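Both lines are quoted verbatim for reference:

——
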Amino acid sequence: MKTPLLASAVILGLFGSFAAVPPPAPFPVPVPYHAFCRSLWLFAAPCAEISTTIAKQIQAFSPEYMLVSATPLEIKANHTSPDGINAQNITFSFSVTTLTSGCRVSAQSISLGFTSLLDDGLNYCNLYKLLSASGLSSAPGFLELTNEWACLGYGMAKCKV
């Protein structure tokens, strides 16, 4: 008597749960996405020097780059491609490294429009152009940490400085 009752409960549990699951939608709605690049830069120089250099380089590249705000801990800027089609928000966050009293910079560029995630490294090049033109890419103690997961298109980037 107990065996058929147990079997009934198991069968009802298995097949009864299928009835409670709603059927999948026939066509999933795509989620909007934006291409992005996040990179970590380390410098042996103080953050005040690094942030000032980056802010000056953004202003030198006006109107392609536009400085939005600058504080000792963060710089925000916008980038618009020369053809006016692509636009990105750029942020640099600065913090002092404990052991070396150098500077740790979290840099990121995010496309504003709904674009392909494979942007051929456009967002990386936005950051690298400022880094290279300012001379910071050859500064003492400079180290860049990024990869294809943090910076989409990084492996395909062919930056023109």
Q: What stands out?
A: The first strand starts at residue 36 and ends at 43.
